[in-house]
Amino acid sequence: MTENNTSIDINSQAVHLHLKMHQDIIKRMALNSLFIKTCCISLLFLFLFITTNVTLSGFTCLLLTMAFATIDTMYLALERGFRASYNNFVNKLHSNTLQKEDLFILAPERISFWDTAKSFSVCLFYVAPLCFYVFISYIAPP
User: What is the CA 82 to chain-centroid distance, rounded?
Assistant: First the structure.
């Protein structure tokens, strides 16, 4: 066997560093998603309570919600892609098929944007502000 085809020791410092880098990226994507959700709610409620034109505020809220949902879906898809990449790395590590070439490759797996958009954390979260707007628009005077 050549040196490039030898398997990596599970206790190697390079393996631990690689796993930590993956975990940090996954954590960063999750925090970005949380930040997008926080900004969305803050801006929507601020805009709804400041404006007096219900029709204009509704259209603007719809656009803002769609924009934030798109960005959040992108972050969630990246997070899922990095989780899949992390799991593949760990599976190779436990099956003793991990090679030196597998170290420090931090590319996410391909995850469908549309499958991610249909996830519970995106659909439920971004439908709620729209339902709130519909409720407010019916009780607001014309």
Answer: 10
Cβ-in-10-Å burial (0-12, 13-18, 19+) of 57 comes to buried
d(CA 107, CA 130): 35
Question: Both tokens of residue 58?
Answer: 């509704």
- The span from the CA of 65 to the CA of 132, in Å, is 12
Stated pTM of the model: 0.80
Q: Which residue in 53, 101, 111 sits closest to 80, CA to CA?
A: 111
Name residues whose C-beta falls within 8 Å of residue 120's C-beta, 6 or more positions apart in sequence. Answer: none
Measured between alpha carbons, how far apart are the two ends of the chain, in Å? Answer: 79
**Contact between 83 and 26 (Cβ < 8 Å):** yes
Residue 106 near residue 25, CB atoms below 8 Å: yes
Q: Phi/psi of residue 72, each to 5°?
A: -65, -40
In tens, the pLDDT along 79-97 reads 999 999 999 988 988 888 8
